[in-house]
Amino acid sequence: MNPETVGRRTSPFIVLVHTITFRQARAFVPAVIPLVAATGFGGGRTTVIALVVGVTLLSLGTAALSWWRFSYADGLSSVVVTRGLLSRSVRTVPNDRIRGVEVETPILHRLFGLVRVRVDAAAGAVSGKDEELVVDGVSRAEGDRLRTAVLTHRQAPARQDDGAEREPAEEEFGRFDNRWLLYAPLVGSYLALPLAAVGALFRLAQELPESLRPDVDEEALASVRAFVIVVVGALLVLLVGSVVGAAVVNWGFRLVRRGGSLIAVRGLITRRHTELEIDRIRGATVAEGAGMRLVRAARVNALVTGLGDAARRGQLLPLGPRSEAWSLVRRLVEDPGPLVAHPPAARRRRIVRAVSAGLLVAAGGLVAIVTAGWWWVLVVGLVLAVLGVPLGLGRYAALGHATGPSSFSVRSGWLVREQALLQRRAVVGWEVRQSFFQRRAGLATVLACVGAGRGGYAAIDMAADDVASFTAAASGQWASALLASGERNPRGPGMSSPRAGEG
Amino acid sequence: MTTAPSPVRQPAWQLSRSAIGLWVTEGVIASLFLGIGATLFIMFVPDDLGGPFPVLRWLVPTASVLYAVMAIGVRPWFRFRVHHWEVTADAVYTLTGWLTRTWTLVPISRIQTVDVTRGVLQQLFGLSTVAVLTASSQGTVRVWHLEADVAQRVADDLAHRAEQVRDQAT
Question: Is the CB of B164 inside 8 Å of chain A's CB atoms?
């Protein structure tokens, strides 16, 4: 289809895979539902069979059509993907825009010996799913060929530097120990997995016809024993579910360095193969949830510039002991040393902020006593206010920053305490923010803007006097513009004003 | 309040004085809408309604008038005293805000795009905004309300210098 490059096709087996998973047909489901509702779901067996056959045929048709209309080509300078059911779309991604290639093998693909290749192409500050090329359904060998081809083409101009290591040895950075799966119940996102599954189950149970529902004696439900059994059962499901969920996602996790790339492989059902360019790594975050801190567990994410879906792809240690996390981080970023605590004014500010919500409720409670005679609102407010004190102290304890010769670090958060370690070159800008109250307390919040991860990492409530020296120490020469001693700039539009307010 | 110690140096240059006019106009427009809303509230909410409404009938107009005085009479001048900007040898530096102040510094070597935008009101006052974008979603510098020709010159100069010193390491 493309005159310059020979379009390659995906394997026809992918039509089968997509028919089974209704991949393309899923788009039509919202249209089909009202149709079915309008004709009236007769409930007869023939209707159901007709519906199943119809949906399958529709799925087969769309899958075949999209297979027929899909082609891709990897040229010397770009990757071109041509697709589209009705309207044609040709997407060309220059090789130097490609940030990484991911090869994944969902279980159905594995049956047919196929893989799915995702080519990650980033375009500056804009992020989204659109910056991704997906070539779904090529043979494993072709997938590997495509990955190597794309990565080699991309690295071709820079090969003078590391020409020596053409076939570089692998170095293992980390390997998942299955005992670490036991940390899973303490991690929020893994706990959410069984919850979602249970929710789906309940919805399914609601839709089941009356005759298929198990007979539940209403009175038995009301007894205390039943209640305890349900609660214990739910807890068990939650615990086991989170461990199983973590196992499915992270099974056999392995992180190796091959040449200039970090390669992470993981997954039980869907094997994922993620490649990160070490040269694009700007830092890492170590995240410890409140529960994880109890057992000294942590997770590590790499901060990579221009990486789409960074929260998942950047994972270097999905779950593990803190010591493991830190030894991994230290291989990527130089440790800037112990954190400097923020001034006592920051502690006051954290406590005031944590307590004020409870006090507001308590104030509302006073009104409620007068108007409606509800005393419990006041009690709840006071309890919240008292609980705010340890929360504020905990939030203060998390605050800190540090600068080293080539890196710096900031930490904050209580529910999830996150420490970001960043290289000096990571900083693409500084934002210093001072609210009215911070100004009175002599504090300021400093945000390091980074073209990776969340886009910015903040040192909350640091002493206002330390801001200029921190920014100068944590980034390049250019940041000295923030220092009070910075020389007056002669290239003005002729409206320079006397400098007021230097710290 | 400008006498309070500031955490970092103040950028050297002030905005165009026309910015005050623009902010006053913005304040007038916002106050007008608020005033219409408050009038409608008084007209259509009956006096004899129970609950908090008798209090609100006083509170809403008072708050609207207070807002108008702030937005038209105080905030523009306050903002003008706070807002500063500067292009140094290797960075763009701004200070914005009035109660909460924000200093933003972006090195020219990390600039990805430079935009000049002119809103409808800005055009009336001959002003433009220069937006400097970087690879970080949070690292955007906006220099508000420069005279249009100054803004264009600054943008051209920044784009030119950014091209020369561009740092591949985004």
Answer: no
Between B75 and A270, name the one with better pLDDT: B75
A468–chain B Cβ distance below 8 A for any pair? yes
Higher pLDDT, A336 or A7: A336
- Interchain CB distance below 8 Å, B91 and A432: no
Q: Are the beta carbons of A108 and A21 closer than 8 angstroms?
A: yes
Kindly state whether residues A356 and A388 are assigned to the same domain: yes
What's the rounded Cα separation, in Å, for the pair B10 and A497? 10
Q: Which residue has the higher pLDDT, A7 or B144?
A: B144
Question: In angstroms, rounded to a whole number, what is the distance separating the alpha carbons of residues A32 and A28?
Answer: 6
Per DSSP, the three-state class of A268 is coil
Contacts of B105 in chain A (CB under 8 A): 429-432, 471, 478-479, 481-482
- Specify whether A287 is located in the same domain as A393: no
Residue A19: inside a domain? yes
Where residue A214 falls among pLDDT bands split at 50, 70, 90?
low
Q: What is the ipTM of this complex?
A: 0.88
Least confident range of A220-224, A404-408, A415-419 = A220-224
Alpha-carbon distance A284 to A208, whole Å? 47
What is the average per-residue pLDDT within A188-198? 76
CA distance A482 to A360: 38
E strands, A311-423, in order: 315-321, 400-403, 407-412, 416-423
Residue ending a domain, choose from A297, A332, A367: A332
Chain A residue whose CA is closest to B136: A451
Contact A456 B136 (CB under 8 A): yes
Residues 64-83 of B with CB under 8 A from A: none
Asked if the C-beta of A481 comes within 8 angstroms of chain B's C-beta atoms, the answer is yes
Contact A489 B138 (CB under 8 A): no
Whether residues A303 and A394 fall in one domain: no
Please judge whether B137 and A125 are an interchain contact, meaning their C-beta atoms are less than 8 angstroms apart. yes
Percentage of residues in chain A having pLDDT higher than 90:
20
Condensed to tens digits (0 to 9), the pLDDT of residues A134-155 reads: 888 888 888 888 888 887 776 5
Domain B84-165, classified CATH 3.40.1000, yes or no:
no
Residues in chain A, how many? 503
